[in-house]
Amino acid sequence: MIALVTGASSGIGAATARLLAREHGAELIVVARREQRLRELVRDLDGGDRHTVVAVDLTSPAAPATVAAAVDQAGGRLDLLVNNAGAAWRGRFGESGYENVRRHMELNFEAVLRLTEALLPALRAAAPSAIVNVGSTAGKVTRGNSGAYSASKFALGAWSDALYLEEKPSGVHVGIVLPGFAATEGFPQRELVDNARTRWIVSTPEKVAAAIVKTATERKAEVFVPSPYRAAAILRAIAPGLVRRALSGGGSAITPATGSNEVQIQPRQTE
Predict the structure, then answer these.
(1) What would the mean pLDDT of 28-41 be, rounded to a whole number?
(2) What is the band of 201 on the pLDDT scale with cuts at 50, 70, 90?
(3) H/E element holding 16?
(4) Which ranges of 105-248 would DSSP assign to H, the alpha helix?
(5) How far is CA 190 from CA 18, 37, 46, 244, 255, in A?
(6) Which residue has the higher pLDDT, 196 or 112?
(7) Average pLDDT, the chain
(8) Is 149 a residue of the active site?
(9) Among 91, 135, 110, 77, which Cα is nearest to 261's?
(10) Which residue has the higher pLDDT, 99 or 265?
């Protein structure tokens, strides 16, 4: 298996790379901005010499071509694409405005589309192959103070469903993993982890990684991590008013997503 994982320098991406190498003997192409972290990762992986490091900012115009060139240099085959890289910046729309929405969409949605477009020919050629997009339960149920992040993940989910229908005849499976709260470098979830009453709802990068691999190998449509989070999405669909009332406390210091990102940064205040 040849697998490409974005956002692989830490958290869910690194855990996914380790799992694929350890249990599936995958030859990996790992992508992130932090080259040193990627090189440290591949040194620790089984068959480290077989893996390829691509240090690139996925929002840059040249990123898709750069990654596609790395795939070609590694042999041109691609069995699995894991679109995991992303980020979250908290902020109410009235203060953070369009700019905060724009940068979420640029990385969490548009960069995924651009990279997938560049790699789709290789995935089709290797079919049966798979694309797994890392979304969030925030892409099903949103909260105040994180609408921009949720918007990017809602968009990712809708596009994933459409892409599945379009690429099924080509043998390319498209699935999405929807983590709830998971403790990672970018999203430490301290407010939840430090509270004994809420600690149980926080997952780990390794559990999300297992869900990613399951989605690819078992060709699942979507997998929530942990699975009880699906209930929140169902409740939002059948009783949106009730969910709104339950969440009407507004914004929170808790980031509503998991560590599909490399770094979490507070947005600059508009002047």
Answers:
(1) 96
(2) confident
(3) helix 11-24
(4) 111-125, 147-167, 190-193, 205-217, 230-238, 240-246
(5) 25, 24, 32, 25, 10
(6) 112
(7) 88
(8) yes
(9) 135
(10) 99
What is the gyration radius of the CA atoms in the chain, in angstroms?
Answer: 18
Amino acid at 213: V
pLDDT of residue 265: 37
The DSSP output letter for 15 is: H
Decide: residue 112, CB within 10 A, 0-12 exposed, 13-18 middle, 19+ buried: buried
pLDDT tens digits, one per residue of 144-172: 889 999 999 999 999 999 999 999 999 99
Length of the chain, in residues: 271
pLDDT confidence of residue 49: 81
What b-and-e string marks burial along 3-40, b requiring 16 or more CB atoms within 10 Å of the CB? bbbbbbbbbbbbbbbbbbbeeeebbbbbbbbeeebbee
For 176, the enclosing helix (H) or strand (E) is strand 172-179
SS3 149: helix
189 or 142: which leads in pLDDT: 142
**Rounded CA separation 30/67 (Å):** 10
What's the mean pLDDT in 237-261?
67
Rounded to an integer, what distance in angstroms lies between the CA atom of residue 113 and that of residue 31?
Answer: 15
- Segment 182-211 mean pLDDT: 77
Q: What is the mean pLDDT of residues 6-13?
A: 95
β-strand pairing of 129-134 with 172-179:
parallel
The token duo for 250 is 């507004």
51 token code pair: 């893996």
DSSP conformation letters of 31-91: EES-HHHHHHHHHHSTTGGG-EEEE--TTSTTHHHHHHHHHHHTTS--SEEEE--B-----
